[in-house]
Amino acid sequence: RALERIVIKAEIRQCDDTATLQRMLLDSAPAVVVIGSLGDGPTGVIEAAYFVRNLHPAAKVIVVADRSSEAIAIGALRAGVFEYLKAPVDPMEIAEAISRAIPPCEEADD
Questions:
Q1: How many other C-beta atoms can be found within 10 angstroms of the C-beta atom of residue 78?
Q2: Among residues 17, 21, 109, which one has the least CA distance to residue 61?
Q3: Which helix (H) or strand (E) holds 55?
Q4: Pairing mode, if any, of strands 83-86 and 60-65?
């Protein structure tokens, strides 16, 4: 039986505002971006989601909103957010959302 290996490449970066997020995304091509409160007000996460989706259309965006309103939820949908979570969120919920955003591994032909 062939040796099975799973290789996972993950890079986790953290930023505190939309401007820093934008600079980080200019030199990377993330598969998944999780956006929480950025200190830019309640609409900051939506603006950040639009930026990610415009720069990296294939990226899955997960928003963790510290405040929830119909306007923010609609903005998230329009921005093409993959998943919208309302804070407080259990870390396992975020892990599960990331897992759903990443496509399953394909089996290698032997």
A1: 11
A2: 21
A3: helix 44-55
A4: parallel
Contact call for residues 83 and 63 (beta carbons, < 8 A): yes
- Are residues 91 and 66 in contact, defined by beta-carbon separation less than 8 angstroms? no
Hey, what amino acid is at 10? Answer: A
- Strands 60-65, 32-35: pairing kind: parallel
Structure tokens at 85: 């979570």
The pair of structure tokens assigned to 5 is 């290996």
Instruction: Return the number of other C-beta atoms located less than 10 Å from residue 94's C-beta.
Output: 16
> How far is the CA of 40 from the CAs of 13, 35, 36, 66, 102, in angstroms?
18, 12, 11, 12, 28
Q: Phi then psi for 44, rounded to 5 degrees?
A: -60, -40
pTM: 0.79
Distant-in-sequence, close-in-space partners of 66: CB < 8 Å, separation ≥ 6: 36, 37, 42, 87
Give pLDDT tens digits for 45-97.
888 899 999 999 999 999 988 877 788 888 889 999 999 998 888 989 998 99
